[in-house]
Amino acid sequence: MLIRKAPDVRSSEITPKDVYLRRREFLQASAAAMVAAGFGALPGVSEAQARVKLKGPIKKSSFSTTEKVNLYEHVTSYNNFYEFGTDKTDPKANARNFKTTPWTLEVEGMVAKPAKYQLEDFIKPFALEERIYRMRCVEAWSMVIPWVGIPLKDVIDKVQPTGSAKFVEFITLHDTARMPYQKADILDWPYVEGLRLDEARHPLSILAVGIYDEVLPPQNGAPIRLVVPWKYGFKGGKSIAKIRFVDKQPRNTWQVMQASEYGFYANVNPQVDHPRWSQARERRLPDLLATTRTQMFNGYADQVASLYSGMDLRKNY
Question: What is the CATH number of the domain that holds 288?
Fold first, then answer.
């Protein structure tokens, strides 16, 4: 049985209790089957994860917000990453032994320079930057995170998309041995996200490889993920294995799963409620109450509103 669930909402909050319990039983049974099949027991949340400093200089970017940064523990313990489980604490527990070296990143499609890269070679030509961004999830919780990454525009310029390319597609690794919950019929794997080419080339869009001057932890999308701060969190594809340049708008995963609730654009818009809850306010973790007023484009309207001039953002959600 496939239970479709909003990307940032606990199952118990949006489904009938009997359905929720059946789903949890299904996921637990799937995990037990994985252990029986030889994947080993999934480690507990209490086990410490290694923290590794990034190599090389890191430039402090002028694009950063001056708002108070969340603690490392907030950012690494409360995550959405369905490849490692559906509850917020699952990814930290279940991704602890996720192997990210070596990592191959493929660039393909409508580009002059398609190639397969080892991640180190892919990143080497670019200067690392720290970008402190507000990040807002569709469930109405938010954080301020010091990402470390490379401007996506610089990557695009390097691979040279052809004149026919209009969109960029980001595809997560599909490997059931390394991402055990891909064995469960939760989403249509692999996870796919997409941007218009002008969105991808905007100076705020980055490919992140770290947080807090450290290597990106597995539960946060290691070793490389998309960060687009004016959009809801589900737009940020994690553990990217392939970047594809195409001429037609991609069908991103949550649009495929629940098109009536999750569109292609995913721009933060407090004036348009989710069909099942308000987007007018948000809960800035670790706060328990949604007391923070949600800003249009997550507070980045001055920088990005021109990208959507003339568009109806109620229809293009």
Answer: 3.90.420.10
